[in-house]
Amino acid sequence: MLPKELLALAATQAGAVTRVQALEHASPEALARLVRTRELVVLRRNVYGPADTLAARCSARLLSVRADCVVSHATAAELHAFPRIEKLPTDPELTRNRPAGEPPRTVDGLRIASVPPEHRAVVQGVAATSAARTLVDCARTMSAEEAVVVADGAVRAGSGRAGRELAYCAGWPGIAQARRVLAFADARADSALESRTRWRLVQQGLPAPELQVTLCDAHGRDVGEVDFLWREQRTILETDGRLKYTEDAVLWREKLREDALRALGFEVVRGYWSDSAQELAVKVRAAFALSAQQSVRPGYGFRETPRRRAQQLL
Prior knowledge:
14 strands; five-stranded mixed β-sheet; four-stranded mixed β-sheet; 12 helices
């Protein structure tokens, strides 16, 4: 059984204790027994915890480095609960503080850059970059698609502006991409797939669609909210994950909904995780062409979902 004092200490350090700290409350034999019985898990060399959680692994690395460091980048995004699509690095990402004005660099897997007090926060008990600084770091260093996923999720969660942090990092590698990503972010994208899709659509030269618009029939009755809408081209794009339609009843309701949207004179396109950017663009352009051939244009109405645009990030 874990000593109460050791458990209390771990709780103050986001679930991690060093071997030296553990030996203040347990003999070497008792510590070995706790590890053997899995009452303590090895988070990294000479650092333990009651459970293997992300916060505990982050705390374990911070305790091992023994420097002015904070958790940052993708790992900080995970702590802030921002959505992501790429696999999280095995080792928590840290940034070691250095004087302002010096360009950031990476040495032996440790990022080195200025992290002033206003760019820091305690997240799940762990010293990390603030939500705004995390956004800027992710937007600078991730692929643009992944960065848009993070930024859309952040603005959906109401993380606030990142303009000051963006200005602070002016001249750093990737800052031009960060500006584009944060300006592009939109709270109306409801999922990682939608975020990735809308970035790809624009990169493929397609006109920017409207997001989350509810279409109505000529009598004002709601037909359905759609993910992406091109009103001029009378085209709808719906992004689907496989889990969405695991039940027959759900699949049937979606079929009836799609039939009703088509009855309003819209072409409906389905986008999937497996679609490449080029495949998606071909589908949408084909729908544009089919819609242009329609001679009958039924009347319809619409209303936009009341969500704020993500320009608030800047």
